[in-house]
Amino acid sequence: MSSSALPWATPAAATAGNAIALYARWSPALDAKIEAAVQRLREASIAHGQGLVQSSSLGVEDMVVTDLIARHQLPIDIATLDTGKLHPETLGLLPRIQAQYGRDVAVFQPKQEHVIAFVQREGEDAMFKSIELRKACCGVRKLEPLGRMLAGRSAWITGLRREQSGARAEVAFDEDDGQGRRKISPIADWTWAEVWAYVERFAVPTNPLHDQFMPSIGCAPCTRAIAVGEDFRAGRWWWEDSSKECGLHAKS
To answer: Where does the Phosphoadenosine phosphosulphate reductase domain start and stop, copy by copy (predicted)?
Structure first.
C-alpha cells in the first residue's frame, strides 16, 4: 500500500501545517509529465468534444487537472458533486476557481427526496453502522448524481493517481469505465510530491484542509487527518476494514 509523504516533513513545516512545505518536491521528470498530461487532455478533447467532462472532487489532484485545462485553454467542461455533507472549505473552492480561471463548475446534488427517505429510514449516522449502509449512503449522495453528471457524455476526466492506494495501483491513463465511456486520468503517474510541486509553481488554489494532514477529502463525517506512515486514503471511512472506495471508480 502507498504511504503518505508525511515522513518527509521537517519539524518546522509540520508545525506550520503547510502542505506545500511538507510535500512539494519538483522532480526532473515533472516537466515531461506535465507536457504528457496536457497532450492527453488535448487528445481527449479532440476525440470527445462536448461529450467530455472533468468530474472533480475538488481535491488537490483534481485542482491540478483543472489548472491544466484552464491554463491551456482547453474547451472541457468541469463539474463536481455536492453531497450535502461536504466541508465548507471544499465548497469554498468553487468561487476561487471562478475567480482564478473564469471557469464555472457545474454542481450536481443528490435528489433531496432520496436523501430525506434514506435518513428517515437509516438515520443521519447510517454510514457508521455497517459498510453496506455506508455504501448505500454513497449511492444516494454520490453515485446517483454522478450518473446525471455523466448522462450523454462519452468520456470523463479524473485526478486518480496510482500512488493513492493499492486499489488504484493499476489506474490507466485511458480506460473503459465499465459503462461504455472512456475514463481519462491524465496525471495517473504523478507522485504526491510532484502534485504539490505543481501547485507551488503555478499557484493552484487548494483546499486548506490539505494543510491539516488530509490528503484525501470526502464528506465531513467520513474524513479525518492521517498519521505519519498511514496510507493516503486511511482517513476515509477510517472505522472500516475496506478498500476505502465509495463506488465512483468501480467498474461494473
So the answer is: 52-225
